[in-house]
């Protein structure tokens, strides 16, 4: 990572990686390989974790914080594909194909990021059946997430787009560690939806009035996850 960061000590890695379901499914020698070759880093808000068209040298995960996957053009305009909350791992497609990364990765909160080298990733993919199963599930669920994102952006009104962007952060397969109380600001949610902070505020107030959410300063508590997941889908 090119931005200033604070590397986690090797003594902390077993507990950090041990909290990941895919790591717990590995046999002891493969766990040792991950711990010997991987690392974790604290990054600040606004840090660039990876850049589009750079080599995909790492498979990336989030232990704490929030990242966004986006594309920025030369004029500074951006298109956000997804947010990645704690428990999420991403970038396996480009690592598998050994291609240049297709998007920028930026922290929109102070975050703790985990980095598994591409060589380690490929060694696990070739030798560990549990890891291969996990990656296949990741690819399948990620494809579904991106299809839903395009559908929501094109067909839903602003309130529903905000609801669905929040609901995506609770995908149990991709983001198993997301808490029902999200430490996320309206500005940060605007980055994920492509809407202004003011319009996000209006949508959140509407959802709160329906009893789906409870709002506090830089915090959103989901009161009814199933209603949040269904909100606005009748527009499709």
Automatic annotation (TrEMBL):
Domain of life, source organism: Bacteria
Keyword DNA-binding: yes
One CC-aspect GO term: cytosol
Domain spans labelled Cyclic nucleotide-binding: 22-125
GO molecular function: DNA binding; DNA-binding transcription factor activity
Alphabetical keyword list: DNA-binding, Transcription, Transcription regulation
InterPro entries: cNMP-bd_dom, cNMP-bd_dom_sf, Env_Response_Regulators, HTH_CRP, RmlC-like_jellyroll, WH-like_DNA-bd_sf, WH_DNA-bd_sf
Residue stretches making up the HTH crp-type domain: 156-226
Pfam families named among the record's database cross-references: cNMP_binding (PF00027), HTH_Crp_2 (PF13545)
PANTHER family: CRP FAMILY TRANSCRIPTIONAL REGULATORY PROTEIN, DNA-BINDING TRANSCRIPTIONAL DUAL REGULATOR CRP
Name assigned to this protein: Cyclic nucleotide-binding domain-containing protein 3
Record organism: Achromobacter arsenitoxydans SY8
């Amino acid at each position: 990572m090119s931005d200033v960061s604070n590397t986690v000590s090797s003594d902390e890695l077993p507990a950090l990686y041990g909290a990941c379901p895919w790591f717990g499914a590995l046999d002891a020698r493969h766990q040792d390989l991950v711990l010997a070759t991987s690392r974790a880093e604290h990054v600040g808000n606004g840090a660039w974790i990876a850049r589009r068209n750079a080599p995909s040298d790492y498979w990336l995960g989030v232990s704490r914080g929030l990242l966004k996957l986006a594309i920025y053009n030369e004029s500074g305009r951006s298109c956000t594909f997804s947010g990645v909350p704690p428990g999420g791992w991403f970038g396996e497609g480009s690592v598998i194909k050994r291609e240049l990364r297709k998007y920028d990765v930026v922290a929109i909160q102070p975050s703790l990021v985990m980095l598994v080298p591409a060589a380690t990733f490929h060694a696990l993919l070739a030798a560990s059946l549990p890891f291969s199963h996990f990656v296949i599930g990741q690819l399948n669920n990620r494809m579904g997430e991106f299809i839903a994102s395009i559908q929501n952006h094109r067909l839903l009104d602003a309130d529903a787009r905000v609801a669905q962007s929040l609901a995506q952060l609770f995908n149990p397969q991709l983001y198993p560690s997301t808490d029902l109380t999200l430490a996320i600001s309206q500005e940060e949610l605007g980055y994920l939806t492509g809407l202004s902070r003011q319009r996000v505020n209006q949508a959140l107030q509407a959802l709160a009035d329906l009893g789906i959410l409870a709002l506090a300063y830089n915090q959103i508590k989901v009161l009814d996850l199933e209603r949040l997941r269904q909100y606005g889908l009748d527009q499709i």
